[in-house]
Write a structure and sequence with these properties.
This protein is an alpha+beta fold. It has helices at about 20-35, 45-60, 110-120, 135-145; strands spanning about 5, 10-15, 65-70, 75-85, 90-100, 130. The longest helix has 19 residues, at about 20-35. The chain binds coenzyme A.
Amino acid sequence: MAAVKKDTDSLQLRRFNWRTDRLVVLSFQYEIYQTNFPGCKVDDHFIEEYSVNLRDAARNSNENLLVLEKDGEVEGFIWMSLLSTLVDPCVGYVKNIYVAPQLRGKGHGRRLLAAADEWFRSNGATKATLDASVGNQRAVSLYQHAGYEITRYRMEKRYSDADD
Ligand SMILES: CC(C)(COP(=O)(O)OP(=O)(O)OC[C@H]1O[C@@H](n2cnc3c(N)ncnc32)[C@H](O)[C@@H]1OP(=O)(O)O)[C@@H](O)C(=O)NCCC(=O)NCCS
């Protein structure tokens, strides 16, 4: 599959190419992980492992990674997978989504999710799922406006010396 979609302002959604796109996609991971997982330090080791994961995903037919390209520059991406769960033999899972800061709020996140819906449905998925951080209100709004509903809570209790 070559270009998936093209619009008038030279934006296109196309398949991720590990050889040519990985460095820019890796550069997105600093914001994604350090924002969504406060305290997470994206270091060289993290980036090396992530690079291997991207390479493996690009070769796996149960994974799909698209990049959003504007004027030849990669400005966004989405990584999606097909999974089976305890109750569903085939569900879509959005592993990662990113739109460059200067392009946010223009509907590109929504467009990436629509491409995921298309791929999930055409591969037999009965639903789409993802995980989001409560603190990432922008992402949560995006998902809700795209039709996602909250179905589970992950709860945490913090320990501190004062509790002793
Ligand atoms: C989350 C992210 C992908 C959204 O991309 P985007 O291109 O800005 O999203 P869209 O323009 O398609 O916006 C769709 C919805 O997002 C929300 N949104 C967009 N801009 C927003 C803003 N400035 N403030 C709050 N919510 C906003 C709105 O709900 C919007 O729907 P609406 O226009 O109907 O109100 C982008 O902010 C991003 O890459 N963030 C950093 C990476 C990240 O945290 N990824 C999520 C990991 S779980």
